[in-house]
Design brief:
The protein is of the alpha+beta class. It has helices at 10-21, 27-34, 38-50, 83-91, 117-128, 151-157; strands at residues 70-78, 96-101, 108-114, 133-141. It is 37% helix and 19% strand. A hairpin with a 6-residue loop joins strand 2 and strand 3 (108-114). Helix 2 (27-34) crosses helix 3.
Amino acid sequence: MPAPPDRLDATDARLLQALGADPRATVMALSQQLGLARNTVQARLARLEAGGLLAPFDSRVRPEALGYRLSAYVTVQVVQRGLEEVAAALAALPEVLEVTALSGAADLLVRVVAVDADDLWRLTEQVLALPGVQRTDTALALRRYVDHRMGPLLERAAGGDRAAD
């Protein structure tokens, strides 16, 4: 199997747009819709999956559907050279959805979910107690105005937006 691409081409972007519109579309339906051979669609999807260029399916599940109605962002300051250990400890907490390394005053930005305010308190106390964590600061997410999206970038990559030229 060929190596995964470093960057999606216009055909990959069109394929992913079609999958975004109908995630349950069959390879045959995608090939007909895009005017590509079935084997081409199948090979491209396999290459994208093998290369880790597609997010896991569970990223589409909303935390609210599991009872986690409260969302927050926790910035974490870590002792010097302790980022890897703290990040691994955070990954072990089910309520931690994302951990991103930052430049600036905080070292990590941690997206968490909680059932309610008491659950968030418990979780932030748990984070603060991790070895290597010096300080945390928590901000509640009140409303999301733009959900995580790739559609506009896929449209640009597929050739639908001339601003990329």
